[in-house]
DNA sequence: TATTGTTATACTCTATAACTATA
DNA sequence: TATAGTTATAGAGTATAACAATA
């Protein structure tokens, strides 16, 4: 008991700092600069979401994965569409919905962006052992999953 | 080489998801609800920064630790001051500067908030072994430090 | 009637620029 | 002249509300 409280008190500042580094270090903006691209962060996030999905997605599904609300995605897609980075195609299963897919340009941009970011991450952990990298990946995944799960139960404590 | 690329490709989505959980899960807002407090997220962040410092801080130092810009902190302090959660005291060493300290109310609020958040974190990892918690804390700290370090070198590659 | 998406609007958070006062 | 802070303004990012079209 004492040990766990102790550990987490130590963990909290690191989580906060990681959040700050990710949000305010201009990490994304610098990667885009290196690629010579003018694009905002949320727009890029749509591209990456589609790239990682590996298949066309519905607007609502993009919003889900980005953890944002539908109308926001609609707006971002306007810009991406105008630039020719994505395009909307019909959803054969539902005439109300549209599927969004990456254009070749969009695919290449997302791939180059991810390579840049991954390159920096790799350099950051260049002197880590393979075991440490694996352990970190595994523990981080577990932590995020358990945290998200615990937080989601805060929404619906009806059985109590 | 292959292994590290492989690992990091797996890590990236988890980092992104952690970021989303932290920023958009209303984690902070829910904690404040439970405490019956009406306060915005950045204001609370000032309180937590002061609480973790354990001593009065200058405005610029608060901005540094929060990774934001000076004028933003000034504005947040207006509100916190009006609510009696912080107060400004003279800096004996420099008449230009002011030191900001938590009031008793502010101290209690920050402490209760941190207890709530830490409680949820503890519940999230309730079934982890002590070893796993320690390993995670240690690897996360190292990762954040190495990442911040690598990113800071992107600013100044003058020797190249 | 429930769901997918769009349009229009408003709000939160943070930055930049111009300025004041002390060092 | 450099530094600490303030005021005023602007911008990015995201949400809510009202609506249209299809299921």
Description of the structure:
Two copies of one chain form a homodimer. Chain A is mainly α. Chain A contains seven helices and three strands; from the N terminus they run H-H-H-E-H-H-E-E-H-H. A three-stranded antiparallel β-sheet of chain A has the order 1-3-2. In chain A, helix 2 (27-35) packs across helix 6, helix 3 crosses helix 6 (104-124) and helix 4 (59-66) crosses helix 5. The two termini of chain A are 25 Å apart. The model of chain A has no long low-confidence stretch (mean pLDDT 90). At the A-B interface, helix 1, helix 6 and helix 7 of A face helix 1, helix 6 and helix 7 of B. The structure holds a DNA duplex (23 and 23 nucleotides).
List keywords for this structure.
mainly alpha; homodimer; 160 residues; 8% strand; DNA-binding; 3-stranded antiparallel β-sheet
How is this fold's topology laid out?
The structure is a homodimer of 160-residue chains.
Chain A: H1 2-24, H2 27-35, H3 41-53, E1 57-58, H4 59-66, H5 70-82, E2 86-90, E3 98-102, H6 104-124, H7 130-155
Antiparallel strand pairs in A: 1-3, 2-3
Helix pairs in contact in A: 2-6, 3-6, 4-5
Chain A binds a DNA duplex (23 and 23 nucleotides) through residues 24, 40-42, 58-60, 68-75, 91, 94-98.
Low-confidence stretches of chain A: none
Mean residue pLDDT of chain A: 90
Largest sheet of chain A: 3 strands, antiparallel
Structural class of chain A: mainly alpha
Strand content of chain A: 5-15%
Q: Largest protein interface?
A: A-B, 57 and 57 residues
The level of helicity of chain A is over 70%
Radius of gyration of chain A: 19 Å
Strand order in space, largest sheet of chain A? 1-3-2
Shape of chain A: globular
* Assembly state of the chains shown: homodimer
**Beta-strand segment tally of chain A:** 3
Give the topology string of chain A: H per helix, E per strand: HHHEHHEEHH
């Amino acid at each position: 008991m004492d040990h766990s409280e102790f550990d987490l008190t130590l963990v909290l500042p690191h989580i906060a700092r990681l959040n700050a580094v990710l949000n305010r270090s201009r990490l994304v903006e610098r990667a885009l600069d290196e690629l010579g691209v003018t694009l905002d962060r949320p727009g890029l996030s749509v591209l990456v979401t589609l790239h990682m999905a590996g298949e066309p997605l519905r607007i609502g599904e993009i919003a889900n994965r980005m953890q944002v609300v539908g109308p926001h995605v609609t707006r971002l897609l306007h810009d991406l569409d105008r630039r020719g980075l994505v395009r909307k195609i019909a959803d054969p299963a539902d005439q109300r919905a549209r599927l969004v897919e990456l254009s070749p340009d969009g695919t290449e941009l997302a791939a180059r962006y991810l390579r840049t970011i991954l390159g920096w991450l790799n350099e950051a952990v260049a002197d880590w052992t393979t075991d440490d990298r694996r352990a970190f990946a595994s523990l981080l995944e577990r932590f995020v999953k358990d945290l998200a799960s615990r937080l989601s139960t805060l929404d619906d404590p009806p059985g109590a």
